[in-house]
């Protein structure tokens, strides 16, 4: 048949994931085995533990993804896999499994950039959504503002100079005793707080810059906490969560809208774990509405790490003729 089936594998951080995707946009299965409960007790992802858990889960997860899709390995056209960026030991588990399968069943291998996967998550639920657009990628490891000119054609407009947005969420959550991962917890707590209660700084940087910086905000929140403790004042964690989040959102939204205007595109997309944030989604939607910009964002399950987005990205690489050899190596700091 004309249909193209990609089996995709993703193990760059703490999710062991596999998926079967038809023609880039139809997800036939999307299996995710999360290690969050394992890493929680350490307050963050422990790389060595992540690698070991991936080794344990990778074959069952791939098997489950194939079974749910009802597509046999023989009918798969290519195997897509994340080869960077990410934790090297974690990446190597998925990459080795994908290479072994590609060799065993004589199918082509297509290596995928993790961020390209996140961006591609926007193609899955909205079949009409196509480049060009501006995409804000906000995750635990990355904060990028990218002009997506075409499939696989990216221009980075800006990125964080220090912490990633998700990293800031996780650090603030830890400081106010919420535990890991902090993003979803701050999201929930902020709903009960006043976003204007505390005037935390907003780092817009130089005029016209599309870069980000969250370390100053992080310090300001930590200083606020220390001051409250020293003065014996009550710590209102709801107001802190809401005010911190508002500072992050104000900067993310205004820079993304400014980037769309400057590049002249009329579509904005978001991707990555932090784009699951309810207040950010609402604020971006409102700002886009005011500027007559179309706003697209994946369902929360496709915002955080998954293999369906890797299958989607691999498809567009595959139809362009991209193939990788079995000597493909993991690249922890792979550039987009
Ligand atoms: O994309 P992702 O699953 O993994 C990386 O590639 O990093 O992103 C994980 C990050 C974590 O920092 C987590 O706290 C954050 O996304 N996150 C959120 C929300 N859900 C996950 N941050 C804010 N609000 C959320 N609802
Ligand atoms: Zn990610």
Automatic annotation (TrEMBL):
Record bears the keyword Cell division: no
SUPFAM superfamilies: Actin-like ATPase domain
Obligatory cofactor(s): Fe(2+)
Reactions this protein catalyses: L-threonylcarbamoyladenylate + adenosine(37) in tRNA = N(6)-L-threonylcarbamoyladenosine(37) in tRNA + AMP + H(+)
Residues given in the record as Fe cation binding sites: 114, 118, 305
Pfam families, alphabetized: TsaD (PF00814)
Protein name as catalogued: tRNA N6-adenosine threonylcarbamoyltransferase
EC number in record: 2.3.1.234
Subcellular location: Cytoplasm
The record's free-text note on cofactor binding: Binds 1 Fe(2+) ion per subunit.
A Gene Ontology molecular function term of the record: iron ion binding
Organism lineage string: Bacteria, Bacillati, Bacillota, Clostridia, Lachnospirales
Main location: cytoplasm
Stored NCBIfam families: gcp_kae1 (TIGR00329), T6A_TsaD_YgjD (TIGR03723)
GO biological process: tRNA threonylcarbamoyladenosine modification
